[in-house]
Amino acid sequence: MRKLIAAALCLAATVTATGCGATVEKSADTESSSVTLTNCGRKVTYDKVPGRVVTNDVGITELMFALGLEDRMAGFAMPDDKGDLTGVPWKDGYDRVKWLSKDQLTKENVLDARADLVLAGWNYGFREDSGFTPDALKKLGIPSYVLTESCRNGRTGSSRGIMPPLDALYADLTNLGKLFGVEQRAAKLIAGFKKEIADVRAKAPANADRPKVFLYDSGQDQPFTSGRYAAPEQIISEAGGVNVMHDVQDSWTTVGWESVVQRDPEVIVICDYGDVSAEQKKKFLLSYAPLRNVSAVKHKRIFVLDYVDLVESPRNPSAIARLGAYLRTVAEER
């Protein structure tokens, strides 16, 4: 999220439809009848169209903005290390909606905002250790919607992800479109995203030539990365690469450096956010002795994407396009 270029992001027709000034359908009336959705494998009924939604984190907040639903929001929580927001397509949304917290949501700021829906995810706001969970909010009379990328999959108590990451994005846009009565808007976004991604896929290297990619989020003793159920899995694969941690049946998770060395990625993608800059992360990777024989390090093939590009968000298609262009150059250089 450093110095994002709005013009590039607005290339997608669907993004321009909501983020760059186009007229879209009016959202549903709050007196509409109840809506039942499937969220994380469960049927959930919402008695009315929410009018005071509170969101947690940048990707989730921008799902609402991309659907033109800022008028249905009471606020959002998001650390201020998630990038420069001045150039994003949804700048108007950020200007209009209250920034409730520069940490994570709490029961207190949700109640203070008089929220009638909390849109968050496991490890994207919802967390057992603090008691901020959908069940806890339900006891307060506040319904929730759980980000599909973060749904717990049942293999362990904490593993997340129940479907391919882009399918999760489309599922959430479809569900939110139905809940707020903006189905056409959601369908147009999804169709545009699919076309943009298909265009990248058509240019991707043949399967045998696809570069192997490791996603590096953070961590020095052990790297934090993406398994098959977080957004980087499909961002990498649709861009024309292979996620070396594809066999890890989790979303965002920790692995060992030994497994990275063994799988010998040709490209490392850095997730840029937080107190440690992308440049600092790059210097660490290039100087870390156990990685010295890894192809990506030897050839200094390190590509940077912003945090919001790599979590479920309406910026995923743009990230795929940019990474795809880089991976094609890597394949050509072999």
Overall geometry? globular
Low-confidence stretches: 1-24, 26-30
Secondary-structure-derived class: alpha/beta
Strand element count: 14
The sequence of SSEs as H and E is HHEEEHEHEHEEHEHHEEHEEHEHHEHH
Mean pLDDT: 90
- Measured between the Cα atoms of the first and last residue, the distance is 30 Å
Largest sheet: 6 strands, parallel
* Relative strand content: 15-25%
How many whole angstroms does the radius of gyration measure? 20 Å
How helical, in percent, are the residues? 25-40%
> Tally the helices: what do you get?
14
Features:
alpha/beta, 334 residues, 14 strands, globular, 14 helices, four-stranded parallel beta sheet
Please explain how this structure is put together.
The protein is α/β, with parallel strands linked by helices and 334 residues long. 38% of the residues lie in helices and 17% in strands. The chain is built from 14 helices and 14 strands. Strands 3, 4, 5, 6, 7 and 8 form a six-stranded parallel β-sheet that branches. Helix 4 links the parallel strand 4 and strand 5 (99-101). Helix 2 (13-19) runs antiparallel to helix 8 (183-203) and helix 9 crosses helix 14 (316-333). It is globular and about 60 Å long. The two termini are 30 Å apart. The relative contact order is 0.14.
